[in-house]
Every structure is written in C-alpha cells, then in structure tokens.
Amino acid sequence: MGRRDGATAAAVALTVLLAAAATLLPPAAASGSPAEGLQPLSKIAIHKATVEMQPSAYVKAMKSLLGKQYGRTNPSVDDWIAVFSPANFNSGACPNPTRYPGEPLLCTAPIKYQYANYSANYIYWGKGSIRFQLINQREDFAFALFTGGLENPKLISVSEPIAFKNPKAPVYPRLAQGKSHDEMTVTWTSGYDISEAYPFVEWGLVGGSQPTRTPAGTLTFNRGSMCGEPARTVGWRDPGFIHTAFMRDLWPNKEYYYKIGHELPDGSVVWGKPYSFRAPPSPGQNSLQRVIVFGDMGKAERDGSNEFANYQPGSLNTTDTLVEDLDNYDIVFHIGDLPYANGYISQWDQFTAQVAPITAKKPYMIASGNHERDTPNTGGFFDVNDSGGECGVPAETYYYYPAENRANFWYKVDYGMFRFCIADSEHDWREGTAQYKFIEHCLSTVDRKHQPWLIFAAHRVLGYSSNSWYAQQGSFEEPEGRESLQKLWQKYRVDIAFFGHVHNYERTCPMYQSQCVTAEKSRYSGTMNGTIFVVAGGGGSHLSEYTTAIPKWSVFRDQDYGFVKLTAFNHSSLLFEYKKSSDGKVYDSFTVDRDYRDVLRCVHDSCFPTTLAT
C-alpha cells in the first residue's frame, strides 16, 4: 500500500489479491453468518490461536496494486484474512486471562477480518481479490492469513508492515455544545502526547479578521482503566490521545471556521482538515431550529469485512442519509449505544471515523447506553457486562458532553427555544438519588415563555414501549422506569420523552399514568395534558420485535431503521418527523401549535397553587 498522509487521507481502500494452488473443489459461499447482536470480533478465539508459518503460504505487499497478494496450497473455506494494528501483534508477552490455560500466543484481536472465500472463486480457482478500507489509527498495519476458522485459528503467514505517512496525525473532529450556549467544543484523536506536540484549534468568524488559537487539553486511558474482559485482554488497543479545545464567546448563528493542529518542537504544525460550523442560537432565540434524535446506531464496514456488516446492518444507511442532509439540521442527539465496541477498543476509532462527516460540522451530543457503561460491580444500576469491560471509560473520553462530573452522564443543553434534559439510564434515577435531583432541577429551571419546547431523553425505555420483552414483563418499560419520573414529566409539562435501547420506532399518544389524555394523533393544539413518548432506537443495530397485541396508547410503530427530526419554527409551532434511513422520507409526523398560556394552564397533577385572597 502506498503511504498516505493521515491528515489529508483518513481512509484508504486496499485491494487484497488472493492466489493459491488450484485445488479443484466445488465453489463455496462465504462461511460464518454471525448470530444477531453478537460483536463479530468476539467470535474469534484469538486466545486459542496457534502459529505455524508455512513456506507455501505468503502475504506480500503489491504497491502498484495498492494491495496484497497472498496464497497457500489447499485453500479452505475456513481460511480468513485479518487486519492487525500494530503490525507486531504476534510478538511479546500477553496479560494472561485467568480462564485461559497457559500464555496465549496472540494477545490482541484484529481490527477487522474477512473470509478468503468472500471472493467467490477463491476455492475453485485458488485466487481472488478482497478490498479493505483502512483508517488512520496511529500505528502500522499487518495482514495475516489464518486457517482453521475463527474457533481454532492457525496463523500461517503475515505481511510486511504498512503505514500511513503520518500515523500520529490529528483526525476525526467531534463538535459538541459546551456548558453555555456561546461555547462550542471540538474533540479529536491523535498519536501526539502533550510532550511531543502542543494541541490547539485555530478558529474564527468566516470572513472575519485574524484567527484565534486556543489550546486543547489532552486525555487518554490505559488497560488498567478497563474493568473487565475483553477490554482488559484481547480487546485492548491503545486509544492514542484525545484532545478537547473550547471555542468561547461565539456570536449566535454566525458561521465559524476551525482547523485542529499540533505544534511540533521545531515550530512546524501538523494540521487536520479545515471545517466550519454554525454557532448555536442563544436561549429563547426565535429562529428556525432543527434537531436530529436517534439511538443505537453501531458501526458497519463499507468493505464488507467483519462478516458482511450483519452486526449493525442499518448503521451506514443512517450515517449516509444524515451526511447527505447536513444542510437541513443543526444539532444531533445520539442517545446511547454508539459503536457497540463491547470491549474491542479499536472499534471506537472505526466509529468516530464513520460519523466524522457529521461530527466535524454539527454538534454531536451523546447519552450513555448499556453498551457503553454496564460492567458488573462498577457502580452502575445494571449488574451486567454489556460493555465488554469498558465501564464507560471510552465513551466518557472520546466524546465531550457538558456534565458537571463526566462519570455521571447527565446534563442539560439549551438550544434556542429547546431545553434538553439528558439522563443516564445506566445509573439510578429513582427518587432520592443525585440524578433524580438533577432531572427535577433541569425540568424546573427552564423559562417556558422563551424556551417552550421541553425534551427529556435517556437510553433505556423509562417511559413506554410495546417491545416484545417489555410486554412479557407486563410493564412496557424498563423495570422501575417511569414510576419515579412520570410525576416530574407531568408536573413540569415535558413535551416529548425520547428513548433508545429498543431497536425500532414507536410513538405514543400524549400520556399520563398509562392513559391517553387526548384522542388526537397528529395535530395537537392548546394545552398538552401529558407527555408524548418516543422510542427512536432504530439507528442501525439489529431490529427488535414488537408484541403482537398493540396497546391502545401506541399511535405508530415501525420495525425499520430511522431517526427523528424536530423543527421549531417559532415559540408556538413545532413539527415532529420520523424518517427512514433507507430513503430519508417522512413516515410519521405530528405538529404542536400552542401559546404560552397553554403551558401555564392547570392540568391534572400540574397546577400552580392559588389563594382565595383578592
């Protein structure tokens, strides 16, 4: 592979040519369809791998083809190609997981893999071709040829190392709104520690005078920061360095440019690509404001690797549709379950690269999901290992969000006429907890005459869902989900409560205490007597089933991939749209038209005290 500059080419396609002795066998389909919801890298028993280099097997770089040529005698349907980084993956000692007898020969999972017979003629003719897309991940790469399938892998050949021109270059900028409306943050990843180069962002008004340089803080984490397997063992990969800079005192709705960089000791600068963004509106500002909401996107591979992207089949559709529509929305809320790395840390780079065309231009606000946080005995509300031992560390480091304590994933965002209260469903939200106090404070302190649109969001369904497993429990919610919170939603007149976790779309009627408070379904006007609950978990992961019986409160259900768009035209008019990721068209919608007096009007369990005095 020709060398590329990581600052200017974050991803390259690489063609891998297969060549092997022509052992005539019937053509075979590519093997290994993954179980639904199973992280593909977890299927590789890398701790059981043996090493048996075969002279007849080879993996050889072919620069003129931007690829690799490799082969072996007696090709098999169990042959597979893996991409490793760093390239010296098969040297050195491994931290020994106690459940494995003896020291593993290989101690790190690959970044991606593909069966050799993905190229249909590999078995029949003994040759073929595969394309891999590589992104800059701070280290060199090697391609490895295995036989024996994923359960009993045998390493038989390794390529020479290849690398981007500057593996340490700054990549994948991620915007997020700061703690105040006039502050935008940018976070990015590089291979430069603060002792090697000084990180900063250069920014200014488009068409303005001299740019400003603002220094960035630098964070990272190590294997010891992980709470369990596989994140501490075969899933570990060095995350590099994560930098965050704050661009402050922004003028509302003005267009700004920025460029991330690192100043080297000799005074030269390694630059990232230039981008621009629009500053957020001030709280209460009366202007067109458009918001995207979804959860559970995951990641997928455009090159078909990792078993044909079956793990998160809708992820790329959602990403591509949002990229194509960049000019028609202003801010994104991804409410939990980001890459589903599940302890394979390399996949966080893959995810940040996938969504970078969005995050480099729009503030991308995230919530914590079970696949980011949940690890047994680590202080979470759910004692399961859905995060693969990550216990929240990568999510809390790779992305900025304006929480008072980054370990407590709850925060508020004031965006023009909207107030968003983002909760953390992986920590206790019940009455008497710190999070409950935050939620009530967030809901109670908004000035509804200037910010009429009050939105609550969390990952797990703390409201209502007719998902099959919730229905089996009889509650249509996460256990103890709404019991503590519904009185807050009602008291403070929450307009919409969003959730993910369930991988489909569903909208309820305006509700309180499991009852619809109106028969209207699409055009709401005047006083809203309850909250509309929305499941928007169809961002890309494998889809979830509904219960066959449709509850009376369920207005619209769609078992497909999609996202929600909110459009505030002014202080009185809101448009809600559900769009499918496959075509970007609207499949469900409603409008709200009301005045400030409608928010103030007394409704059940939400009346201001009055006196008989005159």
UniProtKB/TrEMBL annotation:
Keywords: Glycoprotein, Hydrolase, Secreted, Signal. The keyword DNA damage does not apply. It catalyses: a phosphate monoester + H2O = an alcohol + phosphate. Residues 172-278 form the Purple acid phosphatase N-terminal domain. The keyword Signal applies. Residues 290-505 form the Calcineurin-like phosphoesterase domain. GO terms for molecular function: acid phosphatase activity; metal ion binding. GO terms for cellular component: extracellular region. Residues 72-166 form the Purple acid phosphatase Fn3-like domain. SUPFAM superfamilies: Metallo-dependent phosphatases, Purple acid phosphatase, N-terminal domain. Belongs to the metallophosphoesterase superfamily. Purple acid phosphatase family. Homodimer. This is Purple acid phosphatase.
